[in-house]
Design brief:
By secondary structure, this protein is an all-alpha fold. The chain has 19 helices and no strands. The two termini are 41 Å apart.
C-alpha cells in the first residue's frame, strides 16, 4: 500500500514538474522569439481591449471563445454558441479567485484538470495493464502533438479529466462517481453523449458469457435438428425444446445476470440526461435549445449526418490538401492511420477498449471529416495504452524511441504555431 502511494506521489510530482518546465520554457522562448503578426487572423481575439498583448500568445482560436463566453455568456445568433457551457462557466466561477482574470483562471484550471486526468490515467492503466505499459502510455500521451491543448484554455483538460473519472468509476464499480462524470461529459463537449457506448458495453459485460453460451446452444440445437435422424440411428440423445435434457447433451449453464445488467444499465441514461440538460440550458439562455447545433454552420465541418456518410469519410481520408490546416490536414489523417494501426492491439486489450475508441476516435473523425482530429485524439486514451503495451517489449525499444521523437518534434511545431496565432488544431 505504501509503495503504491509513493509511486502515485512521485508520478504526481513528475507531472507537476513537467508542466512547470513546459510553461517556463515556453514563456522564455516567447520572450526571445515570439511573434503576434498573425493575431489579426484569429476569429475571436483576446485581450478584451483588442490587443495584441503578451497574454494573446495563450488565447488563440477556441481559447478566445471560451474566455469570451466566461465574460459575456450565450446570445442567440452568436457563433460562440457552438461551444459547450461547462468549461467557460468553470472559468467564470473560478475567476473570482484570480481577481477577475479569466485567462489566469483558465490556465490554472486547464493544468490542474489535465494533471489530475493524467494521474488517473496512469493509475487505472497500471492496475489493469501493468505499471510498465502504463508509464510508457503516459509518456506517449504527454508527447503526443495534440496534447499541447492540455496546457491551454481549451475544453480538452476538463473533458479528459471527466473521461478518466468515468473510466475509474466503471473499473472500480464506484457508480456514483461514474454517474456524475457521465452526466457532465456532454456539458463539456457534445461528444460526451456517446459515452453511452462504453457504458452500454460495461452494462452488458456480465451477460456476455451467458449470451455466447445461449448462442452456442442455439447453433448446436440447429445442427442437431438437421441431423436428428442420423443421431437417433446412432443411439445418441437429442436436445429438448429448451436446449437441455436429462442425458446432458447440452449444459444448462448459469442464470442470466439480469440484476447485475439492470443495475449497470441505469448509467446509460446519464449521458443522455446530460445532453438534455445542455439543451435545456441553451434554451434558457438563447430561447432555442438547438442554438449550439445551429451555430455549427459558421464552421461548416461537424455534422451528425457525417456519421452515416461513409463515402464522404473515405474520400476525405485520401484527399488531404495541406500538411496541417483547418480543413484537409495531412497530419490529422496520419494520426487517424496511426489509430487504425493500433486497433488490433486495442482489440486484444479488451472489447470495452474498443467501445471507448469508437467514441473518442472514430466518431470525431467521421463527424468532422478529420477536422481537428489531432486535438480530439489526445483524449482517445485506449490508443496510448495500445502504444504502451505494444512498445513495452524490449525488442521494440528502437521504434518506441523513434515514435516518441516524432511525437515530440510535432508537438513542438504545433505548440509554436499555436502561441504565434497559427492553426494548430
Amino acid at each position: 500500500m505504501n509503495s503504491a502511494r509513493n509511486q502515485m506521489t512521485r508520478t504526481a510530482w513528475g507531472l507537476a514538474s513537467f508542466k512547470a518546465g513546459y510553461f517556463a520554457s515556453l514563456v522564455a522562448a516567447l520572450l526571445l522569439w515570439g511573434s503576434l503578426g498573425e493575431f489579426i487572423r484569429l476569429p475571436q481575439k483576446w485581450t478584451p481591449m483588442g490587443g495584441p498583448a503578451f497574454a494573446s500568445h495563450f488565447t488563440g482560436w477556441d481559447a478566445g471563445y471560451y474566455l469570451y463566453l466566461s465574460q459575456h455568456g450565450y446570445e442567440a445568433g452568436d457563433r460562440a454558441c457552438a461551444f459547450n457551457p461547462l468549461w467557460p462557466f468553470l472559468i467564470k466561477w473560478s475567476s473570482v479567485l484570480t481577481e477577475g482574470e479569466p485567462l489566469v483562471a483558465g490556465m490554472v484550471l486547464a493544468n490542474l484538470f489535465s494533471l489530475a486526468g493524467c494521474l488517473l490515467f496512469w493509475r487505472v492503466a497500471g492496475e489493469r495493464f501493468g505499471p510498465a505499459a502504463a508509464t510508457l502510455a503516459l509518456l506517449f500521451l504527454l508527447a503526443f502533438p495534440g496534447s499541447l491543448f492540455f496546457q491551454f484554455v481549451y475544453s480538452e483538460p476538463v473533458f479528459f479529466f471527466l473521461l478518466m473519472l468515468l473510466w475509474w468509476g466503471l473499473e472500480r464499480r464506484h457508480y456514483t462517481v461514474a454517474a456524475g462524470a457521465a452526466f457532465l461529459l456532454p456539458l463539456a463537449r457534445s461528444l460526451g453523449v456517446f459515452a453511452v457506448l462504453p457504458i452500454g458495453w460495461h452494462a452488458l459485460e456480465p451477460a456476455i458469457p451467458r449470451l455466447r453460451e445461449r448462442m452456442g446452444r442455439g447453433l448446436a440445437a440447429l445442427g442437431a435438428g438437421r441431423l436428428s435422424a442420423r443421431f437417433k440411428a446412432a443411439g445418441h440423445c437429442e436436445p429438448s425444446e429448451g436446449g437441455d435434457n436429462a442425458h446432458g447433451c447440452v449444459g444448462a449453464g448459469g442464470r442470466f445476470p439480469l440484476r447485475s445488467v439492470a443495475g449497470r444499465a441505469r448509467l446509460v441514461a446519464l449521458p443522455v440526461a446530460g445532453w438534455g440538460a445542455y439543451l435545456a440550458l441553451m434554451g434558457l439562455w438563447t430561447g432555442n435549445p438547438f442554438e449550439g447545433l445551429e451555430a455549427q454552420k459558421y464552421w461548416g465541418v461537424h455534422s451528425i449526418w457525417n456519421l452515416v456518410n461513409v463515402p464522404k469519410f473515405v474520400v476525405g481520408l485520401v484527399t488531404p490538401t495541406a500538411w496541417h490546416a483547418f480543413r484537409g490536414s495531412l497530419l490529422d489523417r496520419c494520426v487517424f492511420v496511426l489509430v487504425l494501426y493500433v486497433l488490433p492491439v486495442i482489440w486484444r486489450l479488451g472489447k470495452d477498449m474498443m467501445a471507448w475508441t469508437l467514441m473518442l476516435a472514430i466518431v470525431p473523425a467521421m463527424s468532422g471529416t478529420f477536422t481537428s482530429f489531432t486535438r480530439f485524439a489526445s483524449c482517445a486514451f485506449p490508443v496510448f495504452i495500445g502504444l504502451g503495451v505494444f512498445f513495452a517489449m524490449p525488442r521494440r525499444r528502437v521504434p518506441q524511441y523513434a515514435l516518441l521523437a516524432v511525437f515530440i518534434i510535432l508537438h513542438g511545431v504545433l505548440v509554436w504555431r499555436y502561441v504565434n496565432c497559427r492553426w494548430a488544431g
